[in-house]
Amino acid sequence: MAFTIAIDGPAAAGKGTISRAVAAHFGFAHLDTGLLYRAVGCRMLEGVDPVEAAQSLTQTDLDRKDLRGAEAAQAASKVATIPEVRAALLDFQRAFARRAGGAVLDGRDIGTVICPEAEAKLFVTASPEVRARRRYAELSSSGSNMSFAEVLQDVHERDARDRDRSTAPLRCADDAVLIDTSAMDIGAAIEAAIAAIDARG
Ligand code: C5P
User: Fold this and answer.
1) From the first residue on, what is the mean pLDDT of each consecutive set of 10 residues in the chain (201 residues)?
2) Which residues line ligand 1 (CB under 6 A)?
């Protein structure tokens, strides 16, 4: 049986952690679609044409160790504005979404473009300051020496690029449940997500 859970939202809102927990709870497969754009962004930084990179993405590209860094994130949000890049990644995401046994996909346009028919949709958000604080803690613990101000600027820049692009801009689907995690710890956010999905199922 196919059952798709679409989880969208801006950078560092807690989507990744919530998506992994939701997938584990329901026994579903999980796809972090941001990794696809990050992998294309990293190839672009190496001089490869982003459309060609998206059309020929391999598992090796997705296993790179530098995908989680801030440079990859900025490059990802740039290649993500190119319609041909998004088109090249569409079929893979849709096939993943409809796999037997259920799937959780997290990203920016899952509930609006990739899986408008998803059985459950969440939009996870938090204030830019809260998201930057979380991202700063994450980056610091992995050895980055970016300042809080730089991380906040990165969050603002990516938000603007994701919201203002003409193809598949970041927005809450009309039928998505909105979860604002600004004042929640991660345990409460996961509980809220599972409760919202149970209510749909
Ligand atoms: O989610 P993550 O921060 O890893 O995504 C990196 C970038 O990839 C985002 O800022 C966004 O521009 C892009 N992205 C997207 N659509 C998705 C997932 C990510 O445009 N479904």
Assistant:
1) 95 94 98 98 98 96 92 94 97 96 97 97 97 93 92 94 93 97 95 95 68
2) 11, 33-34, 37-38, 73, 76-77, 80, 107-109, 158, 162
